[in-house]
């Protein structure tokens, strides 16, 4: 769906009062985005100093109140708490009578679909799972990043249009995810985004150790091109010594990493083996070169275990 076809916010009916339970990095940004669409944030809950600062920056003049009072004031409530906290929070709010019939209850967990909201559904709430596939900083830039951001949407069929409409109002693009597919969907995003940060941070540390003064400037164009190529071409974008079958180069990498950054060896070997498997399956890695390469990776794995054993 294109956001370019949306009418002006003031021309759209059914503006909602919005509340946020959990002023982490996500909730205030989503509420601020909904405010731009014409909805009205009326309450937010947050305990830590950091959450209070985020709320004050992104939702100025919106009062900080306990979670139950957020539900009392708002037509649309964003439950933006950690995944492991969500089920207990929903049960507690339902048991205490905080949930009102007809209230839109939206969680932003990637792991869960709509069923985690079943206690609130039994109390008459309208359950929606809207997960933004975006990394958040807790600053106003997050609101801008929601433009064009995909949201994993799960909701009862009769609420699907409402869920998609809210996503579009926040500038996002709705992507329907079946209830039973939510854990796999979330694992895929974590594999790509969370592990990317770890890999980039490790790469910058190694470049600094190699004497590079500006590793971020060196990596920026390279990683940008690699990401663009991967999104466009998938496995066909694989390059480097593993995809070429340069076993000697990979052996040298492992030796240097073991000498200078032993904590990175296990990750390098795991990613190299995964890369080799994919390159071989897609015809990029020649079978006659794969044997030596996989031998190096197997030897490296055994050497890592031995080093860990000696350390203990």
Describe the structure.
The protein is α/β, with parallel strands linked by helices and 312 residues long. Helix content is 53%, strand content 11%. The chain is built from 13 helices and seven strands. It has helices at 27-36, 49-58, 67-73, 86-95, 118-122, 141-145, 160-169, 182-209, 215-233, 241-244, 247-260, 265-281, 287-311; strands at residues 17-21, 40-45, 76-79, 104-107, 126-132, 150-154, 173-176. It has a seven-stranded mixed beta sheet with strand order 2-1-3-4-5-6-7. Strand 1, helix 1 and strand 2 form a beta-alpha-beta unit. Helix 11 packs parallel to helix 13 and helix 12 packs antiparallel against helix 13 (287-311). The longest helix has 28 residues, at 182-209. The chain is elongated, with a radius of gyration of 24 Å. The termini are far apart.
The ordered H/E elements are EHEHHEHEHEHEHEHHHHHH
The gyration radius over C-alpha positions equals 24 Å
- Average pLDDT value? 91
The outline comes out as elongated
Tell me about the biggest sheet? 7 strands, mixed
Q: Regions with pLDDT < 50 over 5+ consecutive residues?
A: 1-13, 302-312
Give, in spatial order, the strands making up the sheet with the most strands.
2-1-3-4-5-6-7
Number of strands: 7
Bin the helical content: 40-55%
**Can you count the helices?**
13
- State the end-to-end distance: 56 Å
The helix/strand class is alpha/beta
Oligomer: single chain
Strand content: 5-15%
